[in-house]
């Protein structure tokens, strides 16, 4: 919290904004600590009342969905009369987050395997140049084995890549399915 925020003393705005953002009431302690450094106290009652009004905005199914879809956690801040709707949206958002996470993970796997293939291919090129300059039969045999091993690595990586791309396609279809399922309810995100 800035010195200006502390000095303005607009605890109603600060509390409301914190409620709209879904912060727990313990955030007031952070504000107290920050403002104490400037010799300013907080108006806890005004802050907490405004935060409750802000929670009325935050604790909706749509906000629960958005929070979970973006990977945020729920701090248990919603009043009991709003919590069921918020949690329903939050549960739906977890489906989206999990589907996005699966796609991200498998896409990362694809990228790693593609890198393995590029690196092995580059290493083959380097080994081939060394083979062309090799002076002894032992060195040529060793380099041919190295090239053969690298080609075998590429074949295994190609197979891994085919499997990873299938998993990526499945993860993309799952995310599309989840998106089609929840878009009519929550809109596009």
Q: What descriptors fit this protein?
A:
189 residues, mainly alpha, 80% helix, 0% strand
Description:
The mean pLDDT is 96. Helix 2 packs parallel to helix 4 (44-58), helix 5 (61-69) runs parallel beside helix 6 and helix 6 (83-133) runs antiparallel to helix 7. This protein has helices spanning 3-8, 11-20, 27-36, 44-58, 61-69, 83-133, 137-186. It is an all-alpha fold. The longest helix is centred in the middle third of the chain and has 51 residues, at 83-133. The two termini are 30 Å apart.
Terminal residue distance: 30 Å
Mean pLDDT: 96
By helix and strand content, what is the structural category?
Answer: mainly alpha
* Number of helices, where a helix is a run of at least 4 consecutive DSSP H or I residues: 7
Question: Share of helix among residues?
Answer: over 70%
Which of globular, elongated, flat, extended, rod-shaped describes the shape?
elongated
Low-confidence stretches: none
Beta-strand proportion? under 5%
Major pleated sheet? none
Question: Radius of gyration over alpha carbons?
Answer: 28 Å
Beta-strand segment tally: 0
Order of secondary-structure elements: HHHHHHH
In a few lines, what is going on in this structure?
The protein is built from 7 helices and no strands. By secondary structure, it is mainly α.
Question: Which helices and strands appear, and what pairs or packs with what?
Answer:
Blueprint: H1 3-8, H2 11-20, H3 27-36, H4 44-58, H5 61-69, H6 83-133, H7 137-186
Helix pairs in contact: 2-4, 5-6, 6-7
């Amino acid at each position: 919290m800035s010195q200006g925020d502390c000095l303005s003393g607009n605890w109603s705005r600060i509390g409301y904004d914190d409620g709209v953002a879904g912060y727990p009431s313990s955030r007031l302690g952070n504000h107290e600590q920050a403002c104490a450094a400037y010799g300013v106290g907080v108006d806890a009652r005004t802050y907490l009342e405004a935060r409750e009004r802000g929670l009325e905005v935050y604790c909706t199914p749509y906000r629960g969905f958005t929070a979970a879809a973006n990977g945020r956690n729920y701090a248990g801040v919603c009043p009991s009369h709003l919590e069921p709707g918020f949690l329903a949206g939050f549960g739906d958002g977890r489906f989206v987050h999990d589907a996005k996470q699966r796609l991200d993970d498998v896409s990362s796997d694809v990228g790693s395997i593609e890198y393995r293939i590029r690196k092995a291919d580059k290493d083959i090129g380097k080994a081939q140049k060394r083979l062309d300059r090799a002076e002894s039969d032992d060195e040529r045999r060793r380099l041919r084995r190295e090239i053969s091993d690298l080609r075998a690595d590429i074949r295994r990586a190609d197979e891994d890549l085919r499997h990873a791309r299938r998993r990526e396609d499945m993860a993309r279809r799952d995310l599309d399915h989840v998106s089609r399922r929840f878009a009519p309810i929550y809109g596009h995100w």
